Amino acid sequence: MDRHRAVQAHPRRGARSAGVLDLVLCATAAARGLVVLHDDKDFDTVARVLPEVSTLRITDALPGRPAPA
């Protein structure tokens, strides 16, 4: 996915870039129709830029677990 490379190469000022492994994981999940279960802001960033990537934060998936501050 060329857009994955664009996300990594051109992060917004003050924003972190997703790592190569994060992008490979997202591309694989998107290609197989899977959801990325995570606790890492980089995956939220990728999902905002690439709508075909579906993510779910672990804190949102488990009832009774406090959300991070």
UniProtKB/TrEMBL annotation:
Gene3D superfamilies according to UniProt: 5'-nuclease
The name of this protein is PIN domain-containing protein
Q: Which organism is it from?
A: Actinospica durhamensis
